[in-house]
Design goal:
With 364 residues, this protein is α/β, with parallel strands linked by helices. It has 13 helices and 13 strands. It is globular. 43% of the residues are buried.
């Protein structure tokens, strides 16, 4: 039986965005092993085990820059590869990509790496040079590279970090169009609701969202700004707990419940691979407002299914929110329906699954 090893830095991304791929690999009679930091008692780990996958706990310090921890991760990957003896490796996010590619090359195993975004390391002058060179090293050793947006692809090609002949752009992780479907709101109280979904941290644009929310709330009493996600940076905890102009919803096991009840999804992030938040919101027929950055602008078409605004510019975000509030009801409904049309045409998750199946077959 052909064995596939998947390296990731968290169960949430693997479960939320790659479940259907795992399902299809198992249907094709592949033996699937997945490596994540969470242990076997985690609810989502249990679901993947019940699906038929084999779990391996691996400690990944996803945001840390301690070389000793990274050395430990490399040793863990070596041990896993020796034990599983995979026919091919799939990796996601920066550290699994870099150290997975090193180990794959060492043991002569093909590996497909997925650039899910350049991340904060590329925006930090202290780490950019080092990470850039590490990715260059990994890309040379990778059998194939999937990119999630044109700009990331161009960056790697233009800086000679990757070669065109073994690189391809796919539409992010896509979206499950059967799972994320339009649903009628349970509330009909004439309150316009906005929702931010994501890790609560500066680089996700939380400060711009809070600033815009405060100013809009002072002008329009019939609006509600919501935040859904966990605290990545603790300094925002007290701000949100004491806020009178945003409603913190905590975390969610199924974001469809929260998306269903709002009118507009806002993603003010500084960088993205391809925004899953926007894809899921669009699939559920929501109006979209997002930073004009790679990974958002591919999903949001100005005046078609939403608005983009200048990244890090809270005033521009505020203007776009106000513009949405003033739109006639019929126009809001039309643009929201356009969101669903766009993802049906361009971002069906089956597109990504087919690309993986073709490449896996080719490489093994």
């Amino acid at each position: 039986m052909t064995r596939i090893l998947i390296l990731g830095n968290a169960i949430l991304g693997l479960y939320s965005f790659r479940y259907e791929l795992l399902e299809k690999l198992l249907e094709k009679d592949y033996e699937v092993h997945f490596s994540v930091p969470e242990d076997k008692n985690n609810e989502k780990v249990i679901e993947l085990i019940n699906l038929g996958c084999k779990h391996i706990k691996t400690i990944v310090d996803s945001r840390g820059m301690n070389p000793l921890n990274d050395l430990k991760l490399t040793k863990q990957y070596k041990k896993i590869v020796k034990k599983v003896n995979p026919d091919i490796i799939l990796s996601y996010t920066i550290k699994p990509n870099i150290y997975g590619a090193y180990v794959a090359k060492k043991y002569k195993i093909p590996i497909i790496i997925n650039i899910t975004g350049l991340g904060s390391s590329f925006n930090n002058k202290k780490t950019k040079f080092m990470v850039k060179n590490m990715y260059k090293y990994a890309s040379k050793r990778a059998s194939f590279i999937f990119f999630q947006n044109q700009e990331n692809y161009n960056y790697f090609i233009n800086n000679k970090l990757a070669k065109k002949e073994k690189s391809k752009i796919i539409p992010g992780s896509g979206v499950n169009l059967e799972k994320f479907i339009p649903q009628k709101k349970s509330k009909d109280d004439n309150i316009i609701r906005f929702l931010f979904i994501g890790r609560i941290m500066k680089e996700k644009g939380i400060e711009e969202y809070l600033e815009a929310a405060k100013n809009i709330k002072n002008k329009y009493p019939n609006v509600e700004f919501q935040i859904l996600g966990h605290y990545e940076e603790e300094q925002y905890k007290q701000i949100l707990e004491n806020s009178t102009y945003v409603n913190y919803l905590g975390k969610s096991e199924d974001v469809r419940k929260e998306i269903k009840e709002v009118d507009c999804i806002i993603n003010p992030s500084y960088h993205e691979g391809m925004s899953n938040v926007l894809l899921e919101g669009a699939a559920m027929e929501k109006f979209l407002i997002a930073s004009d950055i790679p990974g958002c602008r591919e999903i949001v078409e100005n005046n078609y299914n939403g608005y983009t605004f200048e990244v890090k510019n809270s005033k521009d975000l505020e203007d776009k929110i106000e513009r949405f509030i003033k739109l006639p009801k019929e126009e809001k409904q039309k643009m929201s329906k356009n969101s669903r049309k766009k993802v049906e045409k361009e971002f069906d998750r089956n597109i990504i699954i087919d690309e993986y199946l073709k490449k896996i077959k080719e490489l093994i």
